[in-house]
From TrEMBL, chain A:
Its main location: membrane. This is ABC transporter ATP-binding protein. Signal peptide: none annotated. It is found in: Cell inner membrane. Belongs to the ABC transporter superfamily.
From TrEMBL, chain B:
Belongs to the binding-protein-dependent transport system permease family. It comes from the Bacteria. PROSITE patterns: ABC_TM1. Signal peptide: none annotated. Its main location: membrane. This is ABC transporter permease. Residues 98-299 form the ABC transmembrane type-1 domain. The keyword Transport applies. Keywords: Cell membrane, Membrane, Transmembrane, Transmembrane helix, Transport. The chain crosses the membrane at residues 104-129, 141-164, 176-196, 230-256, 276-299.
């Protein structure tokens, strides 16, 4: 069936739409590309580019009303685009398999891990129960899980995110398929885990000569891991070619923009040097936070963290999940009592706040959260979302309130016409601007940005970051910037704390942290950031042209 | 785990005691008592002294605390007192009236669960979209049907029009078909609604896409992956709906003239037969508490995430 010079996957003039009847919405238009045996092809694009839809169609996995309108999908030379479910089931697993995006939700929570690996063998295999069980252990060992016999009996909630992704990889490689589709396989994982998982996928793929279709929004990952790049925008291919060639000399304007907007460690900040004459606004000394566990145990989430932030500067708190970064900023914002140490913001000692003094304190410290979809009430108009903090604090007459709201909305770069809309009518970037406007309307001294740009596409992320920089310069704001993304931190921060398991393993000016880190952990973190094969000349050119803040 | 079981049993006993105490206070607060209602009637022509003697014999006089303690001790030893209206021990009345209700309630529950699961499975697996949509809307229709109306309609249609189930001298099973159906429908409807909703929700989860990518059939996905997760919220509701079952049994028995706890309750209320009412309240509470205790014990068996509740999360 397969002959050696044939592509494993060939997509020809594919068009896909969603919706019903006459109101169908095209999301993929006339897309063609191919994946040769043993090749890694990266489908790159922002949200809404059609990259996930394209990848799903290869498995016949289009969600809901999705339908292939035109074109063909050739797997090993056979067009599967019009196959029925029964025929598709036969190839899912043995010919093409999936490594999903979100390992935490991709395993059935009520079935043991081993059972879920065995299932793919049961569906396609003729193995006896005993042989299948043995093969499960073999597979779990192969993907590098320690104590595979124990893991097989455990349930998903007993494994970490990285371990769950290993289990899902074991399922994907179980029947040695010709093609694996990896849909953002590491976007939900910490950067050090991400690197190990990508290395594992690489090793296994090479071992069996499997082809890989890698769907990702992260250009760093695509640059490091793929042989060829397919760049999608609004469902159309913008550019396609061997990865090094595309990176060295992108032909389309969109690819160039994508590449220059992607944050990169290689770019030095062009932020002005820290003004040491400015007074320190936030001072944290020996902050310790304990949580009670059942059975009289205590868990130390934050252990002796100290830093100080001069007025008008940005301090970044960096760490992976469970590092204590969120707990730290919750304490600074007065949402969490510290067990030890001190926090001072201006004249206020945060630890001594009472319910009476806490409210006036809240207007000095405002928060912007990660998820612009969850942090705005879907039933309130943009106007009332931004107005609400004023109602809570300032008994202003109505016309003055309205003019304050309008002024701040314009200040964050939105037209005043959005004020009458509801959040769902806005894009992710616009919503995050609204969240920033809501935080700024009270004229706070400190703005806490909790992963505030992590959920955004790179081009939108670059816009929001430059807006934040502008607002800081004009209004003299002090930022506490919490992030797991080191490349973003490098761009925006003046000083950095690196947290690991609640301890502060590194602290200092941003240049020092990135160029001369003192701890092994920080070094590991920096090395794990993808994008080593990145075309930094583009960044540097863009920076010279003043496009990157 | 044993600690969890013991503490849940302890809580259940506490709830029972509270139900007993509250119902005792409420019943005592009612004006008049059963002895007065029955024996003040001029048919008996009793003197106030004789009535006082009867009151003492039935132990309805005395201070509230003494009565409370006496009744509590009696209940703990399985002595539910005497029905004043019928003049027989309450336990004897329960012995005749409890079995029909238990049969009705348990058959009704089984029928309700079967019906709910069938409707939910059909709405997920039916071969045509129009059929799936139709089945999808059935529970919201049934949820708004009152029990007494449904009972009367079922008798009208099946007994009088179609003459499928005879009302006069029915066989033991025949006599149960319509009451069980009447009881099952209003319980099956919300249960099916919850099941359908959670099936729809579970089917959008990423682990279902992973199962499809393994090459699993729709049937396998439904029973292997969806069912085990969708049943969890339905289980909680099933426990709560059991209360509905007790209330529904009272109405159903009245409509179909079954000699069960429902009839007994109705009579006891109109006669202020306190011992009977007290016993019924405590037995209903015991049934309710037991069912919910079972639900609580089933949960960790069905959901592995609840088994390691004391484990450290760090």
């Amino acid at each position: 069936m397969t002959n050696s010079n044939q592509s494993v996957l060939e997509v020809r003039n594919l068009s896909i739409s969603y919706g019903d009847g006459d109101r169908r919405n095209g999301v993929v238009h006339d897309v063609s590309f191919s994946v040769a045996a043993g090749e890694v092809v990266a489908l790159v694009g922002e949200s809404g580019s059609g990259k996930t839809t394209t990848a799903q169609s290869v498995l016949g996995l289009l969600a809901g009303s999705g339908r292939v309108d035109a074109g063909s999908i050739l797997l090993n030379g056979e067009d599967i685009s019009r196959w029925n479910e029964k025929r598709l089931r036969g190839i899912r697993g043995p010919v093409v398999s999936l490594i999903p995006q979100d390992p935490s939700n991709s395993l059935n929570p009520v079935l043991a891990v081993g059972t879920q690996v065995r299932e793919i063998l049961e569906i396609h295999g003729r193995l006896s129960r005993k042989e299948a069980d043995r093969r499960v252990i073999e597979l779990l060992t192969h993907v590098g899980l320690p104590e595979p016999e124990l893991r097989a009996r455990q349930y998903p909630h007993e494994l970490s995110g990285g371990m769950k992704q290993r289990v899902l990889i074991a399922i994907a490689i179980a029947l040695k398929p010709a093609l694996i589709i990896a849909d953002e396989p590491t976007s939900a994982l910490d950067v050090t885990v991400q690197r190990r998982i990508l290395d594992l996928i690489d090793d296994l793929r090479r071992e069996h000569g499997t082809s890989l279709l890698l769907v990702t929004h992260d250009l760093g990952i695509a640059a490091d891991r793929s042989d060829r790049l397919v760049v999608l925008q609004n469902g159309r291919i913008q550019e396609e070619g061997p990865t090094p060639a595309v990176l060295a000399a992108p032909k389309s304007a969109y690819t160039r923009k994508l590449l220059s907007d992607a944050p990169s460690l290689a770019v030095k900040t062009n932020r002005p040097a820290l003004d040491l004459s400015k007074p320190e606004l936030v001072t944290v000394t020996g902050l310790t936070i304990d949580f009670d566990l059942p059975g009289r145990q205590r868990f130390r989430a934050v252990d002796g963290v100290s830093f100080s932030v001069p007025q008008g500067s940005t301090h970044a708190i960096v760490g992976e999940s469970g590092s204590g970064k969120t707990t730290t900023i919750r304490a600074i914002s007065g949402f969490q009592k510290a067990s030890g140490g001190g926090i001072r913001i201006g004249e206020t000692d945060v630890a001594s706040l009472t319910s009476g003094t806490l409210r006036p304190f809240r207007r000095k410290v405002q928060l912007v959260y990660q998820n612009p979809w969850g942090s705005l009430d879907p039933k309130q108009t943009i106007f009332s979302i931004v107005e609400e903090p004023l109602l809570n604090f300032d008994p202003l007459p109505k016309p003055e309130r309205a003019s304050r709201v309008e002024a701040i909305i314009e200040r964050v770069g939105l037209p005043t016409s959005v004020l009458s809309r509801l959040p769902h009518a806005l894009s992710g970037g616009q919503r995050q601007r609204v969240a920033i406007a809501r935080a700024l309307v009270l004229e706070p001294e400190v703005v806490v940005l909790d992963e505030a740009v992590s959920a955004l596409d790179v081009t939108v992320q670059a816009q929001i970051l430059s807006l934040l920089g502008e607002l800081q310069r004009d209004l003299g704001l002090t930022y506490l910037f919490v992030s797991h993304d080191l490349a973003v931190v490098r761009q925006i921060a003046d000083t950095v704390s690196v947290l690991h398991n609640g301890r502060q393993v590194d602290y200092g000016p941003v240049e020092q942290i990135f160029e001369r880190p003192t701890s092994d952990y920080t070094r590991e973190l920096i090395e794990a950031v993808p994008g080593r094969k990145f075309p930094h000349h583009l960044h540097i050119a863009a920076q010279a042209a003043g496009q990157v803040s | 785990m044993t600690r969890y079981v013991l503490s849940r049993i302890g809580q259940a006993l506490l709830v029972l005691w509270a139900a007993f105490t509250l119902s005792f206070i409420l019943l005592q607060a009612m004006p008049g008592d059963a002895v007065l209602i029955k024996f003040l009637s001029p048919d008996y022509g009793l003197s106030p002294e004789q009535i006082q003697a009867i009151r003492e014999a039935y132990a309805v006089d005395g201070s509230l605390p003494t009565q409370y303690l006496r009744t509590l001790v009696n209940f703990l030893t399985g002595n539910f007192g005497y029905s004043i209206q019928a003049g027989v021990p309450v336990s004897a009345q329960l012995a005749t009236n409890l079995p029909p209700t238990l049969t009705l309630a348990s058959l009704g529950f089984v029928a309700a669960v079967t019906l709910a699961v069938t409707v939910a499975a059909l709405s997920a697996l039916a071969p045509f979209a129009w059929l799936r949509n139709l089945v999808h809307s059935v529970p919201s229709l049934l949820i708004s049907v009152p029990v007494f109306w449904l009972g009367i309609m079922l008798i009208q249609i099946f007994s009088f029009r179609l003459k499928l189930v005879s009302v006069i001298n029915p066989g033991p099973w025949e006599s149960l078909v319509l009451p069980v159906a009447t009881l099952a429908v209003p319980i099956a409807a919300p249960l099916a609604q919850i099941l359908i909703r959670s099936i729809d929700e579970i089917r959008t989860r990423p682990f279902i896409a992973v199962a499809v990518a393994k090459g699993a059939t729709q049937r396998r996905i439904l029973w292997r992956h969806v069912a085990g997760n969708a049943i969890l919220p339905a289980l909680t509701i099933a426990g709560v709906l059991f209360g509905e079952l007790i209330a529904g049994a009272v109405v159903t028995e009245t409509v179909f003239g079954l000699n069960g706890i429902g009839i007994l309750t109705e009579k006891a209320v109109s006669n202020q037969d306190l011992s009977v009412l007290q016993a019924i309240v405590v037995i209903s509470a015991a049934a309710f508490v037991t069912i919910n205790l079972l639900v609580d014990f089933l949960y960790p068996i069905l959901d592995p995430r609840l088994r390691t509740r004391s484990g450290a999360t760090a």
